[in-house]
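As a warm-up, study this chain.
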Amino acid sequence: MENQKNHPLPLSKGLLRTEDLYTYILETSVYPREAEPLKEIRDVTFGHPQARMSTAPDAGQLIAILLKLLNPKKTIEIGVYTGYSLLLTAVNIPGDGQVSNLPTLYENEIELSNSTHKDLQIIAIDPDREAYEIGLPVIQKARVDHKIKFIESEALAVLDTILENGENEGQFDYAYVDADKGNYRNYHERLMKLLKVGGVCVYDNTLWAGTVAMSEEQTPEPMKAERKAILEFNKALAADPRVQLSQAPLGDGISICRRIY
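Now compare it with the structure written out below.
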């Protein structure tokens, strides 16, 4: 693929042990179908020191199908980075949804371009505005920035504020989480209140580069703390009767949860 010529395979987050097979999947099924704005945002992210944090395109392909099936009107994203997953959501959801009852604390967090408040659909939360602004020109070029309300903040404080008066409970259709792993369980508890029954949440990095199947001794030191958090989170999800669960070995592992009550 032309846009991949300068992207060496080690950037891949795939867990398949055969790199040739992973390359085949990407070049045959993923890259040819990837929307041009998503290719662009991968390109502008590539030179960033933490480029591996971006959502893997093979995982994104499945998420895009989920979004089309769900047709969500109100969504929330925890962890934005340069915006690949945010753009993926924005281009795959309808244009007529809205985010109502937002706390006034966050009303003026961003300037809205070519939009009114009623057009907002995606609450996107991340403390790193600088990373978000790397991908923002691509999002604007794709003309979906009017669907997004970016909030520069740690996520728990925002979620607690959104839940404060109870009006937003059960009002969201979809959520995506790719943030600090130690708070995944805390995010999950709040999202189970915000999501409606039948709503879906996707958690990224739930196989943590395959270390979940390694011993403590085999795990690289920088990955140990978050590996422990992911192991505990995976165990908690498997035991949670509120959700229907599927863990897919795409990208760095994604766990798809559908709230059933």
